[in-house]
C-alpha cells in the first residue's frame, strides 16, 4: 500500500493518546475461552490478529498484525485505535475491567455490522451461496476476480438504506484488502476474497511480505 493510500484510510481513524496506548499495552488479562477447532469463519478472520492465540486481541497485537500484512506503523496505530474503540466494548464480557479496549474472539459476532455481503451469517459462519453471489452479480470482467470498480459496485449494492451508519465500514475493509491483495493487473482474485472471510488472505500477505524482505536482504548482502 502506498503512503497516500494509507493516509486516505487513516484519515477517518479515531485518535488515541500515547498515554492511553501505554495503559492498554501493559494491561494484564487471563486466557479467554475459545475452541480453535470449531471457530466460525469470522473468528478465524480475527484470529490472525490474536498473535499469542489466547482468545483476546489487544491493540498492540492488532498493530503488529496490520504491519505484518504490509501497512506502515502510523497507519497500523490509527487502524487499531478505531477498531478497538468500536469492537472492544461490544465484545468484552461484562465482568472484564475497564477500559474494554481488547477484542474478545468468543464474542466477535457481536461486532458485526450491516451493509455487508451476507457471506457471513449473524453468528459469523460462512454462507457459500452468498459468497457465490459476489461473483455471479459483480465479476463482470473476469468470472473469478473483481476489478476496483467492481469492488465499489459490490459495496454500493449491499448498502442498507435503513442503516446509513453501516456504510463506512465496508468501504474501509474492502478498500484496505483491495489495496493490499490485488494482483499486478488490478484484479482481486476469488481466492483472495474467500480468504478475507476466514483470515487466510492475511496469512498469505504476511508470508509474501516475509519472502520479499528475505529476498531484499539477500540481494543487499551480495552487493
TrEMBL record:
Signal peptide per UniProt: 1-32
**Keywords in UniProt for this one?**
Signal
* Keyword check for Signal: yes
* A single GO molecular function term of this UniProt record: monooxygenase activity
InterPro entries xref list:
Caleosin-related, EF_hand_dom
Q: Does the keyword Signal apply?
A: yes
Q: Which domain of life is it from?
A: Eukaryota
* Similarity comment: Belongs to the caleosin family.
In its UniProt entry, what is this protein called? EF-hand domain-containing protein
Amino acid at each position: 500500500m502506498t503512503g497516500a493510500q494509507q493516509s486516505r484510510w487513516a484519515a477517518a481513524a479515531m485518535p488515541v493518546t500515547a498515554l492511553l496506548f501505554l495503559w492498554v499495552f501493559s494491561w494484564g488479562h487471563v486466557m479467554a475461552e475459545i475452541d480453535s477447532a470449531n471457530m466460525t469463519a469470522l473468528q478465524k478472520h480475527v484470529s490472525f490478529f490474536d498473535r499469542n492465540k489466547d482468545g483476546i486481541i489487544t491493540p498492540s497485537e492488532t498493530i503488529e498484525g496490520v504491519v505484518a500484512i504490509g501497512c506502515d506503523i502510523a497507519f497500523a496505530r490509527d487502524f487499531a485505535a478505531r477498531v478497538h474503540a468500536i469492537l472492544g466494548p461490544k465484545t468484552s464480557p461484562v465482568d472484564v475491567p475497564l477500559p474494554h479496549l481488547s477484542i474478545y474472539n468468543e464474542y466477535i459476532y457481536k461486532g458485526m455490522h450491516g451493509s455487508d455481503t451476507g457471506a457471513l451469517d449473524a453468528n459469523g459462519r460462512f454462507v457459500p451461496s452468498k459468497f457465490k453471489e459476489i461473483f455471479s452479480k459483480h465479476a463482470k470482467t473476469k468470472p473469478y476476480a473483481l476489478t476496483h470498480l467492481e469492488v465499489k459496485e459490490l459495496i454500493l449494492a449491499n448498502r442498507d438504506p435503513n442503516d446509513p451508519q453501516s456504510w463506512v465500514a465496508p468501504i474501509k475493509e474492502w478498500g484496505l484488502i483491495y489495496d493490499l491483495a490485488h494482483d499486478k493487473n488490478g484484479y482481486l482474485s476469488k481466492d483472495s476474497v474467500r480468504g478475507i472471510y476466514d483470515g487466510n488472505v492475511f496469512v498469505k500477505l504476511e508470508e509474501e511480505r516475509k519472502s520479499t524482505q528475505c529476498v531484499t536482504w539477500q540481494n543487499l548482502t551480495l552487493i
